[in-house]
Amino acid sequence: MDLVALFFCAPIYCFRSMAFQAYLFRVTAMNQAFDPKPPLPDYLTDYYQWAYTTSRAVKFWDRPWLVNLILWGNYRRLSNAALQHIEGNCLQIAAVYGDLSKRISEKLAPNHSLTVVDIAPVQLANLARKCPHINLHCQNSSRLQFADDSFDTSLLFFLLHEQPADVRQKTISEALRVTHPGGKVIIVDYHKPKWWHPLRWVMAGAFKWLEPFAGEFWDRPLARHLTNNAKIKVQETFFSELYELTIIEN
Ligand SMILES: C[S@@+](CC[C@H](N)C(=O)[O-])C[C@H]1O[C@@H](n2cnc3c(N)ncnc32)[C@H](O)[C@@H]1O
After folding, report:
1. Chain-centroid distance, C-alpha 168
2. Atom 1 (ligand 1): residue with closest C-alpha?
3. CA distance 63 to 74
């Protein structure tokens, strides 16, 4: 009797097990395709843990006056410069300390929304606390999971100088891909100041010490990152050229 049962049940068991394996394989493949919880990139854990990836860092740094101090008193000015160009559905690529995201969401018309992506869950949790009505996604800027042409405006606020050159290139390409033709990619970041700028050597020293990719970012004009039909439409420098706002149009 047992042998008969085994004879009939074994194939069913094998088939079920194979079907389950196939299901698991499909789920894993889907997860890989959509990257549900992307890992922190090495450069972030190696060089920026002190600034972004722990709740202690968030608690310490997320003070508007401190962000303003780091930007030599220019936080408001640079935020305002970006804000005046933002319109339609907006994607902010990477969280920022201070109140910029809140101000963007307040500026948008009621039928438009702000979406923020960041790779660090602790940053998204902090933003959720500060601005409960924003759409938040844990994504890598170099591999965004939005369809082409999803947004009217994309904003990169002081992200690019923190990324290694290959990641930076992909981030810019991804920002252009998800922004629809005729839309804007707004970049606010460091710019190489003139040799006589009193803070040039202070900043160069700080970059060497804390921000290993920023020096190379200074030396390579943004135009060199552009491919296809993307064009620089606006370029404006601030604080004797230490900062720059660039607007790229697809
Ligand atoms: C926008 S940048 C610097 C902003 C500026 N220093 C400030 O906070 O005001 C910092 C953010 O970029 C995020 N970030 C860095 N690399 C990223 C990546 N590849 N994809 C998504 N977010 C990233 C970090 O987790 C961090 O929250």
Report:
1. 10
2. 159
3. 14
Q: Is 162 in the pocket of ligand 1 (CB under 6 A)?
A: yes
Q: How far is the CA of 170 from the centre of ligand 1 (A)?
A: 15
Distance separating alpha carbons of residues 62 and 59, to the nearest angstrom: 6
Q: How far apart are the CA of 127 and the centre of ligand 1, in A? A: 12
CATH domain 42-249 topology: Rossmann fold (3.40.50)
Exposed/middle/buried for residue 39 (C-beta within 10 Å: 0-12, 13-18, 19+):
exposed
Q: Nearest residue CA, atom 27 of ligand 1?
A: 95
* Residue whose entry in the numeric block shows the structure tokens 């929304």: 113
Residue 20 has pLDDT above 60, yes or no: no
pLDDT in tens, 37-92: 899 999 999 999 999 999 999 999 999 999 999 999 999 999 999 999 999 999 99
Give pLDDT, residue 96. Answer: 97
pLDDT of residue 220: 87
Q: For ligand 1, pick from 63, 74, 96, 243 the residue to mutate: most ligand atoms within 8 Å of CB.
A: 96
| Ligand 1 atom nearest to 38, measured from its CA | 20
Tell me the pTM.
0.86
